[in-house]
Amino acid sequence: MKRVAVLYGGISAEREVSLATGAQVIAALRDAGYEVTPVEVGSDLGAVIAALDPKPDAVFNALHGRFGEDGVIQGVLDWLDIPYTHSGVRASALAMDKAASRAVFVAAGLPVAHGRVIEIGELQESDPLPLPYVVKPLNEGSSVGVEILRHGDNRRPEIARAWRFGPQALVEEFIPGRELTVGVMGDRALTVTDIAATHAFYDYESKYAEGGSRHILPAQIHPETHARALDLALAAHQALGCRGASRADFRYDDTAGEPGRLVLLEVNTQPGLTSTSLLPEQAAFCGIAFPALCAWMVEQARCRV
Q1: What is the radius of gyration, based on Cα positions, of the chain?
Q2: What is the C-alpha separation between 5 and 72, in angstroms, rounded?
Q3: Which of 3.40.50.620, 3.30.470.20, 3.40.50.300, 3.90.1150.10 is the CATH number of 95-111+176-288?
Q4: What is the set of active-site residues?
Q5: Is the pLDDT of residue 143 over 90?
Q6: Which residue of 148, 202, 256, 301 pairs with 83 in a disulfide if CB–CB is 3.0 to 4.6 A?
């Protein structure tokens, strides 16, 4: 029997999401026949390392956000020579840094929104892009800190003054239309989900609160767009050097009719595995039960790659 340690919790803004992911994963891996050691991660890295002695056969990385999916814990596990799920140091760091991943996507010829990195003080002084536009932290996930500024919105100076995500931000044109997402498992793109959020956009609460969004799968979109979304998700996964599972998020502007404009937003190297998460829902649609999905991730576990 393979012994698996599940790392969950963490010290990022997404701790509560990670706790929910971890609880689901622990139960699923036990159902799949693994010997599971839960390791709730806090601020004491030494305690985490101690909990991994003796070494498990693999670590299931159920952490989200900074220090969990940005290459930090991946580097620790590489040092300890313990195989772990999901992407390695380089891909994790690239995907978490929106400026870096954007540069990779542009170099690979993938479609991204018009935008640039700004010093946050610039936002306080004036609009860095024509309205409407989106302001994003460079190194957060789950839509933490994301703001949309539209015509007539006077919140710009307030957002800049209250900014707590570092000295810079990414600003991008707002793409009207739909929010689409595609899960990837290895070399296979699963399907396309159309996300209908109950809020102004697919924010943190829409992602994780019960009833926060409605998932339509497969998305009812033009067949050309569906095929292109699958191709782009796999291409983005490969361009970053991801392994295991990932999820690519898109905006799809079909306001002038279909097929419309498909824009890649980001790749999530640690997709949520909560009861409302998209990747397990897509896997189930493709005939892969949740315990089997988690077991597949364990079997793909590697280190130092």
Answers
A1: 19
A2: 17
A3: 3.30.470.20
A4: 14, 142, 208, 247, 249, 266, 268, 272
A5: no
A6: 301
